[in-house]
What we know:
Blueprint: E1 2-6, E2 8-9, H1 11-29, E3 33-37, H2 49-57, E4 62-64, H3 76-80, E5 101-106, E6 109-117, H4 131-142, E7 149-155, H5 159-169, E8 175-179, E9 189-190, E10 196-198, E11 203-206, H6 215-224, E12 238-248, E13 253-263
Parallel strand pairs: 1-3, 2-11, 3-4, 6-7, 7-8, 8-10
Antiparallel strand pairs: 1-12, 5-6, 9-10, 11-12, 12-13
Amino acid sequence: xxxxxxxxxxxxxxxxxxxxxxxxxxxxxxxxxxxxxxxxxxxxxxxxxxxxxxxxxxxxxxxxxxxxxxxxxxxxxxxxxxxxxxxxxxxxxxxxxxxxxxxxxxxxxxxxxxxxxxxxxxxxxxxxxxxxxxxxxxxxxxxxxxxxxxxxxxxxxxxxxxxxxxxxxxxxxxxxxxxxxxxxxxxxxxxxxxxxxxxxxxxxxxxxxxxxxxxxxxxxxxxxxxxxxxxxxxxxxxxxxxxxxxxxxxxxxxxxxxxxxxxx
Length: 264
Ligand SMILES: [Fe+2]
């Protein structure tokens, strides 16, 4: 089974890039299931239902979560409904709206998708539960389920956390994919226990920008230290960053992981 994971989709420029690239990629590589980081889908901040539906029409089957996922309340009913393909990080404290892991149907059977937040995520770092303990609990509970693969998304700032959780879950999940940096790393490989890993998959949005935001806004903020609104860059070359994981559904291990990075 082939699973594609797409990094943070930055608002409309990101969504338009997905619409241009994803349908052809699905056909070209025979992709069976598509997961994307959804936290920046609507103007870079959170998810509107119409943006999610637009991306589902373009071929995305499931959306992982990050530090922006809870920004727009209209998505909360979808986050709480096990049949809706959107999650928020699983290690938010008890009482946080929504679910942090769900099961999803693929042509080959059920898969488990989990989102986790690193313990230091930008300046908005919330108080969160330990991701290692949380993922242990989720995987223990999943033992009673018939699943053909498990994909963990780790949304974090520290490279050390992103590497260590790969080692920690080696042999226990099919893939662990890092994101939040918006910059792809060159370390995608299958670990010794059959777990596909990449420190960061990258993003979908303007390459000629500051991680999808207009560069001049960030430069002004950097020089003047004034608070200002982020504005998405709509010009320049658009990049589409993803990884393709080939899964052996017999043992739920990854056969390969390869970066698919496109420009338009
Ligand atoms: Fe993020």
